[in-house]
């Protein structure tokens, strides 16, 4: 017998008045209405708001502010006209200084609640530009025949559809202020409905846009794209299949984006789809904080886990005796070796390994390391922490893009492996969003 469709519960149309108690990890206000927790977009702690329900489930509900009755002193008018529709930002209604304090509060709460670890000393937050900072992004593209235009940008908040925006204030201005120009150019192509996304990769002095194309563009299309790139100071590439197929339009010169760490005399080359930090100013400050916290010297044998293309590995090698980088992505490891070569750094080695699996039998893993840096994905590093008993490092720096998994892993290091959490702090890698980037130092 075919299963019946469950009818979606009709939402109340009348606005509800409530007080906001706290913030969730993704920046929504938390309230309790009729003994049920409600997560409310654009609501801040201490406010009284009216909201309308957007979803009601068995254990919780969701809503969005319809009117602010009593505003927080930290509330500001969002400068972007697309805020609230575009899902790229969630914190523009909070003043810049308070954004980082909310993120600090979340980090402290996660250490205490999840990790059962006391955070006694906090680093001063690392801050940088609040706008125009984003140098890497994957933007959606959609030709909408009914509107007679191409949409370029990010998805709507809590919705799979692309938002109809004409600019983006957090993107590097070269791209963020030219979304309409991009839209108009794509609209002239015969393949305008066969381009689902654009990979944006901006270096210190270069801008590369890789267009994912589901069918081959015509020669005329290529001419339009190439001319647009030259006019706008962008290098246009085509991506017919996976990331390794990204290549410039035939006849155009290949542009390799780079970013530099002048303090260490290092320049990185990277491919458009490769992971790099989106905020160069914060990245430079983050690297310096990590290296200073590790207190590196020529006697140190350092392990860099989740090393990517060597963002930490190479600058650490300018201070340490030897550095071993390990990463699960083979193309990134190859590029890390390439970056070591072009920077003439020889006291490093790189290995490919799935760090969510047992690596204890790998030759590099059998060595001893007195200091370790790790920068995992949002899933954290719980699996690899089992190997720390063998390596027995005296000092660990953990860079995290998810305070929940950092707190969990801190609990493992402190409560199971005998380390002490010396210091931790937040880094404003993604201003105007609720995303929390943080760094922590542990010692034996």
Would you write up a description of this structure?
The protein is about 20% helix and about 25% strand. It is an alpha/beta fold. It folds into three domains: about 15-75, OB fold (Dihydrolipoamide Acetyltransferase, E2P) (Beta Barrel); about 100-130 and about 280-444, 3-Layer(aba) Sandwich (Rossmann fold), CATH 3.40.50.150; about 135-260, OB fold (Dihydrolipoamide Acetyltransferase, E2P) (Beta Barrel). The strands form four sheets. The chain has a seven-stranded mixed sheet, with helices on both faces. Strands 1-5-6-4-3-2 form a six-stranded mixed sheet, with no helix packed on it. A six-stranded mixed sheet has the order 8-7-9-10-11-12. A hairpin with a 5-residue loop joins strand 2 and strand 3. Helix 1 crosses helix 9 (about 405-415). The longest helix has 20 residues, at about 95-115. The N and C termini lie far apart (about 60 Å).
Choose one word for the global shape: globular
- Which strand order does the major sheet show? 17-16-15-18-19-21-20
Distance between the termini: 62 Å
Helix content: 10-25%
Structural class: alpha/beta
**Corresponding CATH superfamily of the largest domain:** Vaccinia Virus protein VP39
Low-confidence stretches: 1-7
Main β-sheet description: 7 strands, mixed
Reported CATH architecture of the largest domain = 3-Layer(aba) Sandwich
**CATH fold description of the largest domain:** Rossmann fold
- Taken as a percent bin, the fraction of beta residues is 25-35%
How many β-strand runs?
Answer: 21
Total of helices:
9
Question: What's the overall average pLDDT, rounded?
Answer: 95
The number of domains is 3
Q: Any idea what the radius of gyration is? A: 24 Å
Q: Helices and strands, in N-to-C order?
A: EEEEEEHEEHHEEHEEEEHEHEHEEHEHEE
